[in-house]
Structure formats: C-alpha cells, structure tokens
Write the structure tokens for this entry.
Amino acid sequence: ANKIWNASRYVLMNLGEYPAGKSLHDYRLELADRWILHRFNETAAEVTRQLEKYELGEAARIIYDFLWNDFCDWYIELSKGPLYGEDAGDREKAQLVLCHVLGGTLTLLHPFMPFLTEEIWSKLPLSDTPLIVSSWPEPGEELNDPAAMAKMNLVMEAVRSIRNLRSEMKIPPQKKINVVVRSFEPESEAALAEGADYLKRLSGVDKLVLGGKETAKPSFSLTTVLQGGEAHMLLEGLVDPAQEITRLQKELAIIEAEVFRCEKKLSNEGFLKKAPAELVAEEKEKLDGYMKKRNRLAAYLKELDA
C-alpha cells in the first residue's frame, strides 16, 4: 500500500496545469511513453484473463509486478526529465501518460483494494464517476507497440549493466562517468540512440559515445556485455590503476575463500543427507553467485592489467 500511495502522491504533486481536454493522441509520444502504455495494455489483458479463470492470486501478482517494476522503478524515474524540464508540451505529455497508466492500474487493483483505490481515483483529473462503476480497462490496439518494448528492453539492460559496473568499482552515485557503447547490430545501435537520454540520466553518465562494431575499444576501461554489443566505462580520472588492481585482488581473494567454503560444504555427504533441501538449494545459489562474481572480478583485473 505504501508504494501505491507514494507513486500516487508523486503523480498528484506534478499535475499542475494539467492539460484537461487533451488526449495522448494530441502528442508525439517518446520511447518511454510508448513502452509503458504497451506494458499497461499487456498487463490489463493478462489480468483480465486471469480473473476470468478465477486465478486471483496470479492476477494480483501481475499487477504488483507491473506497478512496482515497470511503473514505479522505471517510468516514474524517466518521467522526471519532461516533468521538471522547461518544455510545456513534454510536461503535458508526461502528465497525461502518468494519469492514464495510474488510473488504469487503480481500476485493475480495485477488486483487491477497493477503499484505497477509490480514494486515490477521486483525486485524479480523469472522471467524476466513482471507480466502482467505472469501465474496466480494455487494451487499446492503437497503444500496442512491441517495437518500443524491444527497444526499451535494450536500454534498461544497458542501464542495469552500467549501474552494476559502477557498483563493482565502488563509484559513488554523485560521480559522473564516461561511457562508450559499441553495438554489433544496427537495431541495437538505433534503440540505444533513441534511449540515449534515459541511459545518461539513469546511469549517471556525463559523456556517452554510441557507435557500431567499427568503433575502437577504449583503453583503460571496464567492459560489460550487452545484448548485441558492449558498454565500456572509462576509468581515467575515476580510479588509480595500481590502487584499483590491489583492491580488486583483495576482493577476489575474499570471494575465492567463499567459493572454497561453499564447495567444501556441498561436497560433504553428511551435510547433503541431513540438511533440509531448501538449505542445500540456498547454499548452491550462494556458490553460483560467488562464482559469477569471481569471474567478473577476474575479467576486470585482466582488463586493468592490459
């Protein structure tokens, strides 16, 4: 409930000069707008399908995933650019999309949380009709956009990967970085070019260079693999090479010790026979995570040594 309240408060606080009387069709929608509307369409269709089968738990899970992951974690963050920018048209467009998606999501949630959703609905500039007698969302074919979905998936993967690199290298959030992205497929290059502003804002990037496979790999950088390409975070000015190699070697030694401990534990027949299955599975999951991190650290060290 707190997440819904917080998301709704954010929307309501940013509805000054709301473009009443206008619709989404009056604007040229950006990539993030087309993506979230497509995802809402998908969600409404799937929730309806699950409710018709009386799969209430699955319907609730689908709404939860959409609201928490797509709307709150991604679109709300992406909407801050146009909402707080100087272009009135971009601001109006973001307001309309936020209201459309939040209002529709409240309708889907109404069977599960009637009082909360009714209260929030009454504050939105959508309709004077109470939510309980409002129409159920019907996916609009004109808002379906699988191409926007595919492009945003590439952009979000790039954001996650660059954030992971920052985290691994202990780079503080307020510190801007420079990134070179080499795309090996024209579709990937086009998608990242369209979502370049999102990539910069959400990853804390100052200078972003987008290129194809002919683009030279930068020296003194760390690489993360993307779908259809690579992203290189430039380290010049961020870290001292010798100090960073020492830090990574120490961290790698700690992870190696954890891998050894897990492998020893999982090779113990007594542990495997006596421990609950969920505890064994948890230990295997830990080992998998440690091994992946070990491989990443080893790759970073190899790049820095080069």
In short: The CA atoms of residues 70 and 102 lie 12 Å apart. The chain has a mean pLDDT of 92. The beta strands are 177-183, 205-211, 221-226, 229-234. The longest helix spans residues 56-84.
